Amino acid sequence: MVEKIRERGEPGVSGWKLVLAYDGTDFHGWQVQPDQVTIQGTLADAIERITGERVLPQGSGRTDAGVHALGQVASFAMAAAIPAANFHRALNRALPASIRVLEAASVAPDFHARHSAVGKRYEYRIFRGEICPPWISRYVYALNWPLDLDAMREAAAVVVGEHDFASFAASDPDLARRSAPNTISDSISDQGEGASTVRTIFSSRWDCVDSDLLVYRVHGSAFLHHMVRNLVGTFLDVGRGHIAATEMKRILEARSRTAAGATAPARGLWLISVEY
Amino acid sequence: MVEKIRERGEPGVSGWKLVLAYDGTDFHGWQVQPDQVTIQGTLADAIERITGERVLPQGSGRTDAGVHALGQVASFAMAAAIPAANFHRALNRALPASIRVLEAASVAPDFHARHSAVGKRYEYRIFRGEICPPWISRYVYALNWPLDLDAMREAAAVVVGEHDFASFAASDPDLARRSAPNTISDSISDQGEGASTVRTIFSSRWDCVDSDLLVYRVHGSAFLHHMVRNLVGTFLDVGRGHIAATEMKRILEARSRTAAGATAPARGLWLISVEY
After folding, report:
1. Which of A205, B98, B107, B275 suits A214 as a labelling partner, its CA being 20 to 30 A distant?
2. 3-state SS class at B128
């Protein structure tokens, strides 16, 4: 019994945009999966409990299990007529405390959280202290070995501009296949087999927020699946001296996942905001 | 096959003191219970994996399920000889990220985390904003209805000094019975049936940390089981106008749990430090 999902443009159907914050630790990522608790599924259930209508909110991009969001954006079309302020309050009552709706607005029917996005910001947070407090450990990668920050900054600067980021795309072909076109944005599978892996990065830098917190901040047009985690893993290999910063250009040009470093753990990654 | 637990004072056995921080959300409280994941049991397992020796660390007091600690203290006697710095590092490797050992020291054999304690500080944290961020919600009670802070401060001041706190002790007799003498400190059952419920509070006050965070800070010689949560629940009833601040004296004098207000949720309570 698959219920019909409303299409934008149907008569009596209006567009909705939600801005979401979540703690991804206890979810199997954004995307609906059978027998798994996901952000998308939990949100759809909450909307259905409030309106009686089944919708499938589209995210600006899929976040992996354990990845957090400060400003994920979701869109969907819905026939139910409900004032935005009431819908907003009802959603935060219906959702678990690990997902909060920061904004809820009715929008033009052609707004789409993924297709309409023109930019995105991510942060990757690294805890540098000796003992990571339990109330922080879900939200950072705790790593207190020595790092050459100058080398990491040099490497981070290399990726600014338009480049083919194939070396930093998810390498698992099963994963790419599972990422069906209508469920994932920041994926090479987004445009089907053989799609472009060229992306534009506007800024890419490492900031020492305080003595215990080192943050990688990246702003780009769009990102491939696992791209930020693969970039950070490679920058950390640079920081540890396993890869020279001067190698970054060669790694990009190799267009091969095996040329780059490891994938950094999900827990440190935050989707900060999406631009339209 | 119950293994023998070492006694302090046995030859070759030395005393140990640990200072612990933990996120209590995913634990069934401090105290070992069959088929439940507890802080005490998780700590005992970690010590056994490191030393091969089974000990039962005694806490300064039992914390309930969901209660957090910034500075819980545990003590135990152990025959294994291991330098404190190595033991400290090994414990943090063996424990889950939700429990951290902040300090590990060998101490005089007569040191006991509970019996040697002379004071304790707790905080109860209330989030006052409209939308509680997911990464804060595990650690606060989110409550954004209006509160009369002046009345709450007046009520909090009444409990300073030596008083019989029977009105604020856990009322569940089953709970009291389960709290066997050697496993719980801050309990009326600590000294057996009919034990004193008189305690001394050195300071008791409400602080506005910022516009979103209201914190109750209390410092006392010792606390009855549920005492801080019952005090906070009563102060919140005062803040909402359900109980007059001038009633606090009468509630204390009633020496009956039914005279006071509700028990505040565990998630907002933090054991800050223990004094020796």
Report:
1. B98
2. coil
Task: Catalytic residue, from A64, A186, A212, A237: name it.
Answer: A64
Tokens 């907003």 belong to residue: A88
Query: Do B6 and B13 meet the contact criterion of CB atoms below 8 Å apart?
Result: yes
Strands A141-142 and A119-127: parallel
Contact between chains at A134 and B21 (C-beta distance less than 8 A): yes
Q: What is the DSSP code (8-state) at residue B100?
A: E
Q: Could you say which of B26, B64, B164, B190 is catalytic?
A: B64
Q: Which two tokens stand for residue A250?
A: 């060669």
Who among A21, A134, A139 is closest to B100 (CB)?
A: A134
Instruction: Report CA-CA distances (Å) from A231 to A66, A140, B40, B87, B146.
Output: 17, 16, 40, 36, 47
CB contact under 8 A, A137 and B22: no
Contact B234, B225 (CB under 8 A): no
Q: Share the mean pLDDT of chain A.
A: 90
In angstroms, what separates the C-alpha of A133 from chain B's closest C-alpha? 7
Contacts of residue A155, defined as CB under 8 A and 6 or more positions apart, other chains included, come to A234, A235, A238, A243, A245, A248
CA distance A44 to B269: 33
Compare CB distances from B23 to A68, A98, A135 and report the shortest one's residue.
A135
The reported pLDDT for the residue numbered B171 is: 76
CB atoms within 10 A of CB B208: 11
Nearest Cα residue in chain A from B88: A131
**In angstroms, rounded to a whole number, what is the distance separating the alpha carbons of residues A218 and A207?**
11
Q: Say whether pLDDT at B212 is over 70.
A: yes
Give all domains of chain A, ordered by start, each with its CATH number: 14-107 (3.30.70.580), 119-275 (3.30.70.660)
Give the pLDDT band of residue A193 (cuts 50, 70, 90).
very low
Closest CA to A107 of A172, A35, A14: A14
Q: What is the C-alpha separation between A25 and B137, in angstroms, rounded?
A: 14
ipTM rounded to 2 decimals: 0.86
What local confidence, expressed as pLDDT, does residue A12 receive? 75
* Residue (of A57, A77, A221, A236) closest to A143 by Cα position: A236
SS3 B174: helix
* Segment A91-104 mean pLDDT: 98
pLDDT beyond 70 at A27: yes
Nearest in space to A235 (alpha carbons), one of A126, A81, A100, A162: A126
- Give B129's contacts (C-beta < 8 A, 6+ positions apart): B142, B144, B211, B212
> What pLDDT is stored for residue B195 in this prediction?
81
Q: Contact, B77 vs B12, CB < 8 A?
A: no
Integer Cα distance of B40 and B62 in angstroms: 9
Is residue B22 a known part of a binding site? no
